[in-house]
Each structure stands twice: as C-alpha cells, then as structure tokens.
C-alpha cells in the first residue's frame, strides 16, 4: 500500500510539472478533460450549478488558469489575482490572448485643470467569474454590435468546455467521426490528425452549431501556436508568434466571421470601418516589411513580423501554419500580399493594458516621448495636458502592456503602431 501511495504522489508531481512547464494540453489534450477536474460528484461549490468546482463556469476555468503567487508569466495562466495588481504592479501574464487582470486595473490622472479617469472594465472582455472578482461589464449590457447579454459572458461563451470539436484528416471540422488524440493547437506531428484519429480545434473554440444565449457559431478559425507561449517579449527573438490562418475547409470560418458571431454590427455598413479578412495587397505588405519604427523604413521583410501587429497567413494547411508558430524568433517573416488583416491584428482576445483590448495604444499620438514611454515618471511629459497624455500609466504599466519591451525598441518619438501597415509617421 505504501508503494502504491508513493507511486500516486510521484505521478501527481509529474503531471503538475508538465502543466507548469507550459504544456497546456496536458489536461485538456485537445478535448474533454478529466470530469473531476471541473466537476465534483460529492463536494461541488456551494451556490453553483452542474456540480462544478466553481460558483460559475468561468470561476471553474480560473481554478486552473489563475494562480496566486506567480512572479511573472507562467504557463497557461490567463489571469493575475486582483490582490497582486497594485498601482506599482501591473498584471503579470503575457499570453497572446492577454491577461484578464487588466480588467481590474483602473487609471486616474490629473494635471492643471485636466483630469482623466479610465475604468478597468474597458480593457477587454468582462467575463463573469464570481469566485475571482470578475463581474459583468458595467457599461455595455450586450456585446458591442450584437445582442449577447454581458451578464452571461464567460469562458464558455467562446470555448467549448467539453472540447467536442475536432479536426479530421480531411481538414473538416466535426463533433464526431474519430477520437481526439491530442491538441491541434500546437506544432508537431503528434498534433496532426491521422486517418483514424482526430485532433482538437484551436484552443477548444466554439464550432458550427455551438449555441449560447441566442448566438450560434458557424465554424472555427484556423491557427497554430507554440506549446510555450506565455513569456516576456523584451527582444525581437523572444516574440511569440501565433500563426493565424485562413481555411475554407468544412467547418471553418475566418477570424473576422468568428468574432462577428457576437459582434455582428461591427460588420454592418457604417460600423464596419476597418476591413478584415481580405488580402493586404502588395503596398501594405511592402510597408509592413519595411517598417521598423517611426521614421525608420529600413526593415527587411524577412524579419519584420511583430506580435503587436500580427496577421493571418493565407493558408488553411495546418502543416504550413505549424512551422510559423514560434516563441524563439525562428519565424519573423512579414506578410505577403495575399495574407490578411484580422480582428486579432489589433485586438487581444481576452484583455490588455489598452482600452478595447487593443494590442497597442491608440489613445494618444505618441507611444514614447524623448525615448521613454508617455507615462508618469517621464519628465518630458509635462504641462496642463499631461494627464490626457499619460492617462494614469506608469512606465511599468506601459512596459507590461507591450509585453516587457523596453522603450528603446521604439523611436524616441514613436507614434501609434497603426503605422506598421500604413507608415504615415
């Protein structure tokens, strides 16, 4: 009996090590995970439903995806506990989708007669997770451009918690047809389907027919990510590249179509201002490749990729996308003319340090002034309008927002990163 107990302890420790190493598919494995990981037959959370271990569905997710005491980016964590976010300490996670902790980061500033106030709820998707202090959006009662009720928004709105959607060898997405052997989110031969085995869809995203509170998804978008993806991006070669793709195979949609499931009005005349899901064209692709920073157009297309302004590769072939997914700078090529701008080009899926979950700030014309972020502590940002320029941010806030990039990566007077494609600076 002692031997059995010791074996179980060793096995549990090994599984924990796998999980904390960044191999997020150790638990989900591309599909439904162990039932007891989310549900408890005899000791569910009081006040909850479905025998879940959390009061609600998002709280159940965050029992694993938030971790108190992280000293920095860690594994598959997508939320920094509210108690660890202070005026001097911004959220810690650096996943491609962002850290929900930014929803708890409020900003105020004052200079002269000017004051500035910004509520954390403006920083992304306000998932409801009562056990972790996340509440419904206090401003928007429904999804902007849509009808999905904000009070019902949770992780399960966009992700299928049971992970039934799978990619078959034919390229089609289905809910049956072959067992899921592994996650399809990551690169590597083991994460590709065979004639008799399927892999899960990217990030367990909701697929065709998945319905929540009056909205119905029509398919899943294509993407591949490196298996380790939560890290600082202080240097160009430390950037995490998610290889977003474009597939026309059965059960797939573009990223714009997928986001439009909830944000339908963003695709209607008068609201759908910036085009998505269309080829960049040779002019924009060329500018992207040349752009280094404000005033510097000496870049090489072969090394021009920026995770602050990603794009979708015009391919639905996952074996093409997989080699592009990297966390070590091995895939930094810029776009071709047929590659596409997507919603993900400008927004993070969860939240960010900017309003509207933007990857970069567009609230003021300058990102840096005199070689430093436009922040409290930058002695060059002064005067009665300083509050409207700094907007309550410290240098640490901005550096965290830009995934630990030092201001020296930008021009001394860097303008908004829309210019990565448009080069008007």
Tags for this entry?
disordered N terminus, alpha+beta, 3-stranded mixed sheet, 425 residues
Task: Briefly say what this structure is.
The protein is α+β, with helices and mostly antiparallel strands and 425 residues long. Helices cover 18% and strands 8% of the residues.
Descriptive notes:
The chain is α+β, with helices and mostly antiparallel strands. The protein has a domain of 187 residues. Helix content is 18%, strand content 8%. It is built from eleven helices and 13 strands. The strands form five sheets. The chain has a four-stranded mixed β-sheet, with no helix packed on it. A three-stranded mixed β-sheet has the order 9-10-11, with no helix packed on it. The radius of gyration is 22 Å and the shape is globular.
Distance between the termini: 71 Å
Order of helices and strands: HHHHEEHEEEEEEEEHHEHEEHHH
The overall average pLDDT, rounded, is 92
- Tally the beta strands: 13
Side by side, the strands of the main sheet go 4-3-6-5
Please state the overall shape, judged from the principal axes of the Cα atoms: globular
Biggest β-sheet strands, sense, barrel: 4 strands, mixed
Tally of helical segments: 11
What layout of secondary structure does this protein have?
Blueprint lengths: L1 H19 L4 H4 L6 H4 L18 H9 L41 E5 L2 E5 L36 H4 L7 E2 L5 E2 L5 E3 L15 E3 L10 E2 L2 E2 L5 E3 L18 E3 L9 H5 L21 H10 L21 E2 L4 H4 L46 E2 L2 E2 L12 H5 L4 H7 L17 H4 L3
Parallel strand pairs: 5-6, 10-11
Antiparallel strand pairs: 1-2, 3-4, 3-6, 7-8, 9-10, 12-13
């Amino acid at each position: 009996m002692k031997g059995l107990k010791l074996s179980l302890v060793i096995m549990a420790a090994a599984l924990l090590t796998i999980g904390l190493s960044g191999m997020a598919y150790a638990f989900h494995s591309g599909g439904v995970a162990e039932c007891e990981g989310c549900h408890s037959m005899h000791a569910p959370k009081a006040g909850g439903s479905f025998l879940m271990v959390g009061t609600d569905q998002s709280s159940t997710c965050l029992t694993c995806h938030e971790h108190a005491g992280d000293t920095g980016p860690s594994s598959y964590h997508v939320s920094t506990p509210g108690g660890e976010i202070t005026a001097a300490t911004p959220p810690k996670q650096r996943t491609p989708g962002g850290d929900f902790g930014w929803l708890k980061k409020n900003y105020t500033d004052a200079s002269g007669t000017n004051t500035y106030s910004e509520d954390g709820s403006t920083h992304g998707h306000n998932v409801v997770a009562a056990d972790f202090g996340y509440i419904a959006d206090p401003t928007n009662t429904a999804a902007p451009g849509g009808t999905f009720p904000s009070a019902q928004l949770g992780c399960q709105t966009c992700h299928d918690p049971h992970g039934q959607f799978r990619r078959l060898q034919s390229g089609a997405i289905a809910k049956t047809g072959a067992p899921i052997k592994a996650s399809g989110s990551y690169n590597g031969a083991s994460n590709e389907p065979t004639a008799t085995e399927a892999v899960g869809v990217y990030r367990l995203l909701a697929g065709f027919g998945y319905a929540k509170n009056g909205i119905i998804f029509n398919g899943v978008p294509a993407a591949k990510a490196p298996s380790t993806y939560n890290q600082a991006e202080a240097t160009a070669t430390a950037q995490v590249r998610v290889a977003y793709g474009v597939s026309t195979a059965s059960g797939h949609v573009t990223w714009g179509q997928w986001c439009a499931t909830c944000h339908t009005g963003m695709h209607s005349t008068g609201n759908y201002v910036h085009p998505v899901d269309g080829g960049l064209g040779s002019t924009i692709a060329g500018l992207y490749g040349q752009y280094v920073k404000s005033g510097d157009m000496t870049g090489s297309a072969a090394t021009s990729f920026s995770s602050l302004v990603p794009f979708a590769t015009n391919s639905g072939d996952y074996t093409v996308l997989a080699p592009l997914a990297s966390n070590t700078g091995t895939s930094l090529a810029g776009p071709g003319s047929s590659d596409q701008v997507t919603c993900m080009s400008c927004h993070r899926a969860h939240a960010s340090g900017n309003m509207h979950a933007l990857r970069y700030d567009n609230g003021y014309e300058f990102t840096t002034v005199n070689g430093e972020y436009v922040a409290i502590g930058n002695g060059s940002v002064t005067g009665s309008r300083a509050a409207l320029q700094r907007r309550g941010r410290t240098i640490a806030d901005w550096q965290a927002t830009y995934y630990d990039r030092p201001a020296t990566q930008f021009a001394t007077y860097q303008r908004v990163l829309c210019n990565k494609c448009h080069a008007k600076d």
